[in-house]
Design goal:
Number of domains: 2
Low-confidence stretches: 248-299, 302-309
Number of helices: 11
Strand order of the largest sheet: 9-8-10-11-12
Distance between the termini: 29 Å
Shape: elongated
Strand content: 15-25%
Structural class: alpha+beta
Length: 313
């Protein structure tokens, strides 16, 4: 099955309009069915200009692809004058609602999900049953759907970051994201992490001598484009979540500050599996009160995380 057909069929199987909710807004996304477009020609046929497959019913490329369209190099049948309904769906803007698929990150499987960051994070960690298409938009301007690929495995899948298709190991994604989110929970921004800029003042419980080693790990991981995708979708943990994650990786060196039991929050788009390894409920407060007040270093996280990657890749 071609990618745009899977996306189009997933949308047709979904509830309309599609729900979309972020921390600042809640709205409905009503994409346009190509068969309802004024330029749709039900008797058109041949090979699709974009995907190159035989089709019945489409939109003339001169009507669909405006002068601002810059992806003609992706056309599989440049001699064709028409675009099939599935590819047209990926391109069209709904003139009534001014909404288009290119504006959103999405996951297409049995149904189509327009993703906020939490949902994208969830799908990257726990993809749906294959086949599926997973894509993240940053600019909201690029026609990612026609450049994305179908995945047939949950453990080794393909995902787009803009128009770049990335070969993702699910376990590497989880390890990268856990490291990034823990560093964010300790006060580092995504820019700090991406640029390996840890020179600003940090929590006094973090040993500053760890900075060069953690930077080296990030430099190594950045060679795998999975890291960039994980960085984009990562969500900041609370400091307590980050501390908890690191404590669970190392039971021999507890955090120097007083600790309280807690249950991590579960926000929209987060699956239970995403939170495994983050709950400290099996530990007692007494164990922290009696433990030596040692300094938890980023070297500790480096050692734990490196072993995690070695075991899972």
């Amino acid at each position: 099955m071609k990618t745009t057909k899977l996306i189009y069929e997933a949308w047709k199987n979904s509830r309309h309009p599609l729900p979309y909710e972020t921390s600042v807004e809640k709205r409905e996304v009503e994409l346009l069915d190509p068969v309802e477009d004024k330029d749709f020609q039900p008797n058109a046929g041949g090979k699709c200009y974009l995907c190159g497959e035989e089709f019945s019913g489409g939109i003339p490329k001169g009507k669909l692809l405006k002068s601002t369209f810059t992806d003609h190099s992706f056309a599989k049948s440049p001699e064709s004058d028409c675009v099939c309904a599935a590819c047209a769906f990926a391109i069209l803007t709904n003139p009534n609602r001014r909404q288009a698929l290119r504006w959103f990150s999405f996951c297409a499987a049995d149904t189509l999900t327009i993703c906020n960051r939490w949902q994208l994070r969830s799908f990257l960690r726990e993809p749906p049953d294959p086949p599926f298409v997973l894509a993240a938009t940053v600019s909201q301007k690029k026609h990612i759907a026609i450049k994305s690929a179908i995945s047939y495995s949950r453990e080794r899948y393909l995902a787009n970051l803009e128009d770049e298709t990335i070969d993702v190991s699910r376990q590497a994604m989880i390890a990268d994201m856990d490291l990034i989110e823990s560093l964010m929970g300790l006060g580092f921004s995504k820019t700090n992490i991406n640029e390996m800029n840890f020179s600003r003042k940090t929590d006094p419980a973090i040993n500053p001598t760890a900075i060069s080693e953690i930077s080296g790990l990030i430099e190594q991981r950045k060679k795998d484009r999975t890291f960039a995708l994980a960085l984009y979708a990562a969500q900041e943990k609370t400091q307590e979540d980050a501390i908890c994650y690191m404590d669970l990786q190392l039971t021999t060196k507890p955090w120097r500050k007083e600790h309280k039991l807690f249950t991590p929050c579960t926000e929209a788009g987060t699956k239970t599996e995403d939170l495994q390894g983050l709950t400290c409920g099996h530990k007692s407060n007494d164990s922290f009160d009696r433990a030596p007040k040692e300094q938890l270093t980023l070297e500790d996280l480096l050692t734990a995380s490196s072993g995690k990657w070695d075991a899972e890749r």
